[in-house]
Amino acid sequence: MFTGCSNQTWAGGVLPFSLGGIGAPGCSLLVGTDAVEGSVTNGGGVASRSDSIPNLPALVGAKLFHPWLVVDPGAGNLGMVPSDALETTIGGGTLAGAACERRAQLPVSEVRSAGST
């Protein structure tokens, strides 16, 4: 999984960015890749990530975008397929020392798909 701080621009370019040129026709990079985190799925094909959010008032309202890059050997030359990107907004709840599970426990004011592959 990777986390981006924008779904508009990244590395001086405009998003979404087509991945067709690197072997993933029909797929696009929807968000910047500001942080990359590896995960392994369980026997049912499920993976999850938890992160701590510092208790900083400046982070309230910050938006982060979280797509997964799934290994799929049959998916063209790249061998990977990007997911849609989950958009999260850090809310005004108590954050001190909280390890937050994405999609479940983050105090979010908006969760929506940022686009499709």
In short:
The chain has 117 residues and is mostly beta strands. Helices cover 0% and strands 33% of the residues. Strands 8-9-11 form a 3-stranded antiparallel β-sheet, with no helix packed on it. Strands 1-6 form a two-stranded antiparallel sheet.
Question: Descriptors for this entry?
Answer:
117 residues; mainly beta; 3-stranded antiparallel β-sheet; two-stranded antiparallel ribbon; disordered C terminus
Task: Give the biggest sheet.
Answer: 3 strands, antiparallel
Strand order of the largest sheet: 8-9-11
Work out the oligomeric state of the chains in this entry: single chain
Distance between the termini: 15 Å
Point out poorly predicted stretches: 93-117
> How many DSSP H or I helices?
0
Describe this structure in words.
By secondary structure, this protein is mainly beta. The chain has one domain (2-41, 52-113). The protein contains no helices and 11 strands. It has strands at 2-3, 9-10, 13-14, 17-18, 28-29, 35-36, 50-52, 63-71, 80-89, 99-101, 112-113. It has a 3-stranded antiparallel sheet with strand order 8-9-11, with no helix packed on it. It is flat. 18% of the residues are buried.
Spell out the blueprint of helices and strands.
Elements: E1 2-3, E2 9-10, E3 13-14, E4 17-18, E5 28-29, E6 35-36, E7 50-52, E8 63-71, E9 80-89, E10 99-101, E11 112-113
Antiparallel strand pairs: 1-6, 2-3, 4-5, 7-10, 8-9, 9-11
